[in-house]
């Protein structure tokens, strides 16, 4: 058991369009990718991914977040309000990665930099160094960058070829606070799990309710959270007539109970852990025709 204190913190990746933010995120998180529901510590943000790795013998959890409303293209009143929101959102992350492209320091880059609050650790990430023929070529540019602000680190790298990503991990880890992890170390993606959970319920519906069950019945996962290692899942079965609802619930609620119980057992086997499942049946008249409702259910 490694007795080193763990480190954990929230990291925002900012930069003008096309500098390689998404590529960097993918490179950093790679197969560790786990989209998770947000915890109180990150409520101002959407969590894009969590990566847990030992960096220089310190177990470190990197939580990458999205900063909503980041907008630098037009500067009007609305954007000023949005920018204020960005400032607030960025003020409570632990580290900001300001991503730029090697050899380019544009007004848009500078605008993004201005939005990074002083007092939050800031790392300049100089991306796309693979486009340079010689390693040293980047040095004058790094020098120029260092003159723009008092950065905690300046890291040249290539998000595309994964070159020097380890240096970035080390630089960020050094800036993260010592604290316990916010997420389980082996957090799996919850998207597929959520999807699998809905599928298990659908399968039981078809098995146990049978042929009378219309195709217009759907399952929506309202809540999927991991609480103390246990998956807590709330699901709604949407039907379009109350007669269908009665059919699914069954006499004295027997049928729904069985659907829930069998689906839960399947999920526990599938996820390898305990599951608390609650299911409701709701009548949504004509739900399949209602575009906005469909959208809110996650259909295109
Ligand atoms: N040569 C090179 N190209 C890169 C690198 N990283 C990203 N790119 C390319 O740069 C382009 C933009 O990359 P994205 O990751 O989509 O950039 P972004 O900053 O997320 O862009 P927006 O989503 O528009 O904000 C893509 O064509 C990438 O393939 C790199 O390290 N080297």
Quickly list its features.
300 residues, alpha/beta, Rossmann fold, GMP Synthetase, Chain A, domain 3, 2 domains, 6-stranded mixed beta sheet, 3-stranded mixed beta sheet, 9 strands, elongated, binds guanosine-5'-triphosphate, cell membrane, ribosome biogenesis
Structure description:
This protein has 300 residues and is an alpha/beta fold. The chain folds into two domains: 7-175, 3-Layer(aba) Sandwich (Rossmann fold), CATH 3.40.50; 190-296, GMP Synthetase, Chain A, domain 3 (2-Layer Sandwich), CATH 3.30.300. Helices cover 34% and strands 24% of the residues. Helix 6 runs antiparallel to helix 8. The longest helix is centred in the middle third of the chain and has 20 residues, at 190-209. It is elongated and about 75 Å long. The structure holds guanosine-5'-triphosphate. Residues 15, 17-23, 127-128, 130-131, 158-160 line the site of guanosine-5'-triphosphate.
Topology:
Blueprint: E1 7-14, H1 21-29, E2 46-55, E3 58-66, H2 77-91, E4 95-101, H3 107-114, E5 122-127, H4 139-146, E6 153-156, H5 165-175, H6 190-209, E7 218-227, E8 230-239, H7 242-249, H8 254-271, E9 275-283, H9 291-296
Parallel strand pairs: 1-3, 1-4, 4-5, 5-6, 8-9
Antiparallel strand pairs: 2-3, 7-8
Helix pairs in contact: 6-8
Bound molecules: guanosine-5'-triphosphate.
Domain Era-type G: 7-178
Keywords: Cell membrane, Cytoplasm, GTP-binding, Membrane, Nucleotide-binding, Ribosome biogenesis, RNA-binding, rRNA-binding
Main location: cytoplasm
Instruction: Give me the count of strands.
Output: 9
CATH top level class name of the largest domain: Alpha Beta
Contiguous runs where pLDDT drops below 50 for at least 5 residues? 31-43
* Main beta sheet strand tally, sense and closure: 6 strands, mixed
The ligands bound in this entry are:
guanosine-5'-triphosphate
Number of domains: 2
CA-CA gap between termini: 47 Å
What oligomeric state do these chains adopt? Answer: single chain
Q: Give the spatial strand order of the biggest sheet.
A: 2-3-1-4-5-6
> Radius of gyration over alpha carbons?
24 Å
Tell me, rounded to a whole number, the average pLDDT. 81
Helix-strand category:
alpha/beta
CATH architecture of the largest domain: 3-Layer(aba) Sandwich
Quickly count the helices: 9
CATH topology of the largest domain: Rossmann fold
Taken as a percent bin, the fraction of beta residues is 15-25%
**Would you list the SSEs in sequence order as H and E?**
EHEEHEHEHEHHEEHHEH
Helix content: 25-40%
Overall geometry comes to: elongated
Question: In the CATH hierarchy, what is the superfamily of the largest domain?
Answer: P-loop containing nucleotide triphosphate hydrolases
């Amino acid at each position: 058991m490694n007795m080193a204190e763990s480190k954990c913190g929230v990291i925002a990746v900012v930069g003008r369009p096309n500098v390689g933010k998404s590529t960097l995120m993918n490179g950093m998180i790679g197969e560790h990718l786990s989209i998770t529901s947000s915890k109180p510590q990150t409520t101002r943000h959407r969590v894009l991914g969590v990566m847990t790795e030992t960096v220089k013998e310190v177990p470190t959890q990197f939580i990458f977040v999205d900063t909503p409303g980041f907008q630098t293209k037009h500067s009007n009143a609305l954007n000023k309000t949005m920018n204020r929101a960005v400032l607030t959102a960025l003020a409570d992350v632990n580290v900001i990665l300001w991503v730029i492209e090697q050899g380019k320091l544009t007004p848009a880059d500078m605008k993004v930099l201005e939005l990074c609050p002083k007092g939050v650790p800031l790392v300049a990430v100089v991306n796309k160094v693979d486009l340079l023929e010689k390693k040293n070529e980047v040095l004058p540019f790094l020098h120029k960058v260092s003159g723009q602000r008092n950065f905690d680190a300046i890291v040249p790298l290539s998000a595309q070829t994964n070159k020097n990503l380890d240096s970035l991990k080390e630089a960020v880890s050094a800036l993260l606070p010592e604290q316990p992890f916010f997420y389980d170390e082996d957090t799996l993606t919850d998207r597929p799990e959520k999807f699998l959970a809905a599928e298990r319920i659908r399968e039981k519906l078809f098995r146990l309710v049978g042929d009378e069950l219309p195709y217009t019945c759907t399952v929506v996962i309202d809540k999927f959270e991991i609480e103390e290692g246990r998956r807590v899942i709330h699901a709604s079965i949407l039907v379009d007539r109350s007669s269908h609802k009665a059919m699914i619930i069954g006499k004295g609620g027997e049928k729904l109970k069985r659907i829930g119980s069998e689906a839960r057992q399947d999920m526990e086997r599938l996820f390898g852990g305990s599951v608390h499942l609650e299911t409701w049946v709701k009548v949504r008249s004509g739900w399949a025709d209602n575009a906005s409702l469909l959208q809110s259910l996650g259909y295109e």
